[in-house]
Structures are given as C-alpha cells and as structure tokens.
Amino acid sequence: MYICLCHGVSDKKIRKLVIEEGITDIKGIKKCTALGSQCGKCVRSAKEVINDTAKDLFKQAS
Asked: Any idea where the BFD-like [2Fe-2S]-binding domain is (predicted)?
C-alpha cells in the first residue's frame, strides 16, 4: 500500500528500512526517501507503520 502518494513510498519500503537499516523515526525515513516533503499528509500513517514494525521486531526478539 502506498503511504506517500506524492512520492510513491510504500509501507513495504518503510518496513524494509526499519528492519534492515534500523530506522525508527520519521527523520530517518525522510533521509532515505522523499516521504512527507510535499503535502505531508502521509507522515501520520508512516509513523504508524514504523511503530507497528518496531513492535513486531520487539515481539520476535522476546
């Protein structure tokens, strides 16, 4: 699913960055993608994807 329609950033891309690069905040995602740099409506949804992915990783590690 596309999270940022303006720049074509998907939830899969965000999850991949969290899992493989250890990025856990919007600032880190913005460094790797153009997320949130145009209209900004995607930032809230992106935060949810980041948090959900981090929670899943924590549960797997426990």
From this structure: 2-51
Residue 2 has what DSSP assignment? Answer: E
Helix (H) or strand (E) holding 47: helix 43-61
Per-residue pLDDT tens digits for 15-46? 999 999 999 999 999 999 999 999 999 999 99
Compute the half-sphere exposure of residue 38: CA atoms within 13 Å on the CB side of its CA.
11
State the pTM of this model.
0.91
Note the Cα 46 to chain centre separation in Å: 5
Interatomic CA distance for residues 1 and 11, integer angstroms: 6
